[in-house]
Amino acid sequence: MNKFYSFLAIILLTLMSACGNAAEQPKTEETKPAAESKEQAEELKASVTLTKNEMAEKVDAKEIAFEEGQNLMDAMKENFEIEESGGFINGIEGIQASEADKTYWHLIVNGEDAMTGANDIKLKDGDKIEFDLRNYE
Hints:
Blueprint: H1 2-24, H2 34-43, E1 45-52, E2 57-65, H3 72-79, E3 82-85, E4 88-92, E5 95-96, E6 103-109, E7 112-113, E8 128-135
Parallel strand pairs: 1-8
Antiparallel strand pairs: 1-2, 3-4, 4-5, 6-7, 6-8
C-alpha cells in the first residue's frame, strides 16, 4: 500500500510541476507592429479608370489602396470625390450622371459588366475597375 501512495504522490508532484511550468512560461504570440499591419493593408491595390462615351474618352486613372474586405464604394469615397444616392454613384470627380442627359455610370470589374452595385463588390488585390459615363438611350 505504501508503494501505491508513493506512486500516487510522484504522479501528483509531476502533474503539479508540469502545470506550474506551463503557467510560468509566457505565451509567445507573433504579433506584428501596427505600422507593419498598415503596410500590409496598403499592399492591396486596384486600378480605377474613369471614361466617357463607351470608353472613347479617358477622364482619369489611378491606382488605389484598400484594406482586405473593403467594398468598392468605400474605397471610391476614400480616393475620389463621389456623389451617391440610394447606393448608386451619380457623380465622380464632379462629373455627374443625369436623367436630363440620360447618362449613368456603367461599372466594369476585371473586364466584366458588374451585376451588382459598388456597395456589394468586395475588392481583391489587382482588380481593374472601370467607370464609364454612358447614355442609356
